[in-house]
Design a protein that fits this description.
With 444 residues, the chain is mainly α. The protein has helices at residues 3-30, 32-43, 47-75, 77-97, 101-116, 119-129, 132-152, 155-164, 166-187, 205-216, 219-250, 255-282, 287-307, 315-326, 328-331, 334-341, 348-376, 382-389, 391-420, 438-443. The longest helix is centred in the middle third of the chain and has 32 residues, at 219-250.
């Protein structure tokens, strides 16, 4: 075996070890998607209070993205992923034994901290062990395998909850996740063999803020933020919390049929991820047009679902709608490719954290707003109540689409301006009438 083959094998081994932690993170994040009704009964919660579980976890996730980027820069992804597995396992064990709403909130907050430390760490490992050309593919494969965690949270978890009950189902998941931290610590390597890991000195607070501001000032980072906000939010809100109650209460499905429908949402993402990743790797100039086409299709889907006469949507139409929406997860990987392309390597983790904030900010706003609107619609028929509640998802999508289009135009103008200055650009683009002038890019 040549040195190159050995390095390639080590890269895939390290990535596969790390991606298991990410799969666990997606599983823990998605558990309330099928356990939401049980949580309502266990803790005696209404829709808004139930939504707080997800909002708290996702809100902690979003707030932790920039600190996570800095932690990865300072301590390396190996240590951060090990700590993430321990925190997620601890949080899920607490959730298994929680018998009060406050303790349940503490458990979900701990889960959120551990969850927040996974994806950016896996991206840093991928950036260190794989070439830039393979990066988009690795991001998409990571997202696809993360979908396996979502799948485990739908079908098998539904079975475990019905057969073994709340405590044993969540306890087993927590213990296994915490135990995996030993494997992560043993198998992961921050850099390839023979490469010296850079020594990171503690960064003062002023330096941290400057680093964040520099990443945020890059139009490509801002575009990544809003692209993630727009493409990732809808499938996440449906999959993480409100899809299961919507299908059971508003559409009249059995819990088993609703789990199967949500499983379809996940399987679609698993299949689409490597295909989209391969396209992004070979034709990077198509990344944003594909993202734009998705948000247009998602707007059409929400218009159909929310405007269907009577509110009860035929199952074939629901299946098609969910398959369309599920592509948003794989497409959201464009945000991290933008962060890598338009930022120097020493700032990639910070920029990746910033763009990741976009999607989870949208999920936080959307999930909480759905719960509040459902509370306000209390007393209406379930179909009408969910029609009102899910307007929040539609509103979040429209806001994100508008801002994504604004920063797409500005980023393109920045690329053209750089070309005119004779600089190397990450992706060569073709001008259109829609594009801003170089002078407008400089002003922006």
């Amino acid at each position: 075996m040549t040195v190159t083959d050995r390095a390639r094998k080590q890269a895939w081994l390290i990535w596969s070890t790390a991606v298991v932690v990410y799969i666990a993170a997606v599983f823990h994040r998605s558990t309330l998607g099928v356990a939401g009704l049980e949580a309502s009964e266990r803790f005696g919660l209404g829709p808004a209070a139930l939504g707080t579980f997800t909002v708290l976890q996702i809100g902690v996730y979003a707030l932790m993205q920039i600190p996570t980027g800095l932690l990865v820069d300072r301590f390396g992804p190996r240590r951060v992923l090990t700590a993430a597995a321990l925190l997620m396992g601890t949080g899920q064990v607490l959730f298994a034994i929680a018998d009060s709403y406050p303790l349940g909130l503490v458990a979900r907050a701990v889960l959120g901290v551990g969850d927040a430390m996974t994806f950016v760490s896996v991206l840093r490992l991928a950036a260190a062990h794989f070439s830039a050309r393979r990066f988009s593919l690795i991001v998409s494969l990571t997202a696809a395998l993360g979908g396996a965690g979502n799948l485990v949270a739908t079908l098998p978890l539904t079975f475990m909850l019905s057969r073994f009950g709340w405590t044993w189902a969540f306890l087993l998941a927590g213990v296994l996740t915490a135990a995996y931290s030993v494997i992560a610590l043993w198998r992961l390597r921050d850099v390839p063999d023979g490469v010296t890991a850079p020594v990171q000195e503690p960064v003062p607070l002023r330096g941290v803020l400057r680093k964040v501001a520099e990443a945020w000032a890059v139009p490509g980072t801002r575009l990544g933020f809003w692209a993630h906000f727009s493409t990732m939010s809808t499938p996440a809100i449906i999959g993480l919390l409100w899809g299961f109650p919507y299908l059971v209460q508003a559409q009249g499905m059995s819990p088993e049929a609703a789990s199967t429908m949500l499983g379809l949402l996940v399987i679609g993402a698993i299949i689409a991820s490597p295909i989209i990743g391969a396209v992004f790797s070979k034709r990077p100039e198509l990344r944003m047009p594909i993202a734009g086409a998705f948000v247009a299709a998602a707007i059409v889907v929400w218009t159909v679902l929310l405007g269907w006469p009577g509110g009860v949507v035929p199952i074939p139409v629901l299946g098609v709608a969910f398959l369309v929406l599920t592509v948003g997860g794989p497409i959201s990987g464009v945000a991290f490719a933008l962060a890598r392309d338009y930022n120097p390597m020493q700032r990639v983790s910070t920029a990746s954290g910033l763009v990741n904030v976009g999607g989870f900010t949208a999920v936080t706003i959307g999930a909480l707003s759905v719960g509040v609107l459902l509370d306000l619609a209390d007393g209406l028929a379930p179909q009408q109540a969910f029609r009102i509640g899910l307007l929040a998802c539609f509103g979040v999508l429209l806001l994100g689409t508008w801002r994504m289009l604004v920063w797409w135009r500005r980023t393109r103008a920045e690329v053209f301006a750089a070309e005119e200055r004779g600089e190397t650009v990450p992706v060569r683009l073709r001008r259109t009438r829609w594009d801003a002038s170089s002078r407008q890019a400089t002003a922006a």
